[in-house]
């Protein structure tokens, strides 16, 4: 099973879109980390991704990027192999 972690906030429309895209791919198990819950979680996201915006998505520990990066991977045909599809 593919391990997917998405750092997000509760008001981020791009986070919702990323989750929908993954859902269309059949991904039901998604580890969502709401960075609004703790400054430590935001710091962890920045340390792991080097970015301050949400969403930040990791597949099997590899930083994929944000929503735009996820879409580019999907459009280029590289997302399905990462998801094990």
From TrEMBL:
Give yes or no: UniProt keyword Magnesium.
Answer: no
Mind listing the UniProt keywords for this protein, alphabetically? Cytoplasm, Disulfide bond, Electron transport, Redox-active center, Transport
Q: Which residues does the UniProt record annotate as the domain Glutaredoxin?
A: 4-64
Quote the InterPro entries the UniProt record gives: GLR_AS (IPR011767), Glutaredoxin (IPR002109), Glutaredoxin_subgr (IPR014025), GRX_bact (IPR011900), Thioredoxin-like_sf (IPR036249)
Enumerate the SUPFAM superfamilies for this protein.
Answer: Thioredoxin-like
Q: Which CDD domains match?
A: GRX_GRXb_1_3_like
| Bilayer-crossing regions | none
The record's annotation in PANTHER family points to: GLUTAREDOXIN 2, GLUTAREDOXIN-1-RELATED
Q: Which family does it belong to?
A: Belongs to the glutaredoxin family.
Function recorded in the entry: Has a glutathione-disulfide oxidoreductase activity in the presence of NADPH and glutathione reductase. Reduces low molecular weight disulfides and proteins.
- Protein name stated in the entry: Glutaredoxin
Name the gene.
grx3_1
């Amino acid at each position: 099973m593919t391990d997917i972690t998405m750092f997000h906030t509760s008001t981020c429309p791009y986070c919702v879109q990323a989750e929908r895209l993954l859902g269309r791919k059949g991904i039901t198990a998604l580890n969502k980390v709401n960075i609004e819950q703790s400054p430590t979680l935001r710091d962890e996201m920045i340390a792991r991704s080097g970015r301050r915006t949400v969403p930040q998505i990791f597949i099997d520990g590899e930083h994929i990027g944000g929503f735009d990066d996820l879409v580019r991977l999907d459009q280029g045909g590289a997302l399905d192999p990462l998801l094990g599809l």
